[in-house]
Design a protein that fits this description.
3-stranded mixed sheet; alpha/beta; Rossmann fold; globular; 7-stranded parallel sheet; 10 helices
């Protein structure tokens, strides 16, 4: 049995902790408000990852630390760096490996799909630059590091563009408004597949200091809306395209710089993950059902 620490009690962090516990490992799941979890030998501890000494005390003897924490979207450039720095320092102090739950923002708007793990970072947004700097911090550390990069999430409890913009309207059988090209094919990553990739990556025996992509499913926003409508047993709603002015009027300014993600096809090449880690993508319908299960439970 090994010992692991998972930083961040969101959907990916909690699922990562659950998977590790299922394998018989001891797990500490920590965040500022860790709550509770019914998942075998998982102990939840409320702590602040920016405090490297506190985190190192929790991680003493740990084989790996999983950095799954999330900062408020509008505060990434200020809040993410102290979290990452504290986590990296803790991993260095206890001699643990470091697994980072990241995303594809660092590739930037000029990147051509399919995005490959070997593609150089060229961020064109504040949030992409934040993610790039975070990964560089991990690479410069004394801890062996791997970053697992996901596209936009689907899954229970995930807070994403789709869950914020499209899902509320779908649940009310109303017209759906979304950003970008509604017919551009887009990669959707399942929170549970992201956790599976993180756990598998922790056992990787090759050279570290590299990223892996989460095996994902691809569908246009129009197709995804159709899938959700089918699962909800409702008529397919009409789709409207949001402009930057619309987003600003909604108070969702943070989405404007990231709208490029949906303006052209965005696909993920996860061949390395499938071949080297043995992880494959869940079906799109499984992702849809899990997303809806979480939403409907919240509405009860």
């Amino acid at each position: 049995m090994s010992h692991y620490v998972v930083v961040g009690a969101g959907p990916v962090g909690r699922e990562t902790a659950r998977l590790l516990a299922e394998e018989g490992h001891g797990v500490i799941l920590t965040s500022r408000n860790a709550g509770s979890i019914d998942a075998g030998d998982v102990r939840t501890v409320s702590s602040d990852a920016t405090d490297a000494a506190q985190l190192a005390a929790l991680a003493k003897g740990a084989d790996a630390i999983f950095m799954c924490a999330m900062a408020a979207y509008h505060r990434w450039p200020t809040d993410f760096f102290p979290i990452m720095d504290g986590t990296v320092k803790a991993a260095e102090q206890v001699g643990a490996k470091l697994l980072v739950a990241g995303n594809v923002y660092g590739y930037g708007a000029k990147a051509v799909s399919p995005l490959t793990p070997g593609l150089e970072s060229d961020p064109t947004s504040r949030k992409g630059t934040t993610r790039h700097i975070m990964w560089q911090r991990a690479l410069r550390s004394g801890a062996p590091a791997i970053e697992v990069r996901a596209s936009d999430y689907l899954g229970r409890g995930a807070v994403t563009y789709f869950s914020l913009l499209a899902l509320p309207s779908l649940l009310k059988s109303e017209p759906v408004s979304f950003l970008g090209d509604l017919d551009a094919v887009h990669a959707w990553s399942f929170t549970k597949d992201t956790a599976r990739t993180l756990v598998a990556a922790s056992r990787y025996t090759g050279e570290w200091g590299r990223p892996f992509h989460v095996p994902s499913q691809s569908a246009s926003v129009r197709e995804l809306v159709r899938r959700f409508a089918g699962a909800l047993n409702i008529d397919i709603p009409s789709l409207l395209r949001l402009t930057s002015a619309d987003l600003e009027g909604m108070g969702f300014d943070e989405a404007i710089e990231m709208s490029y993600l949906f303006e052209k096809p965005l696909l993920l090449d996860a061949d390395d993950t499938e071949k080297l880690l043995g992880v494959t993508a869940s079906s799109l319908d499984t992702m849809v059902r899990d997303t809806l299960a979480g939403q409907l439970r919240m509405m009860e």
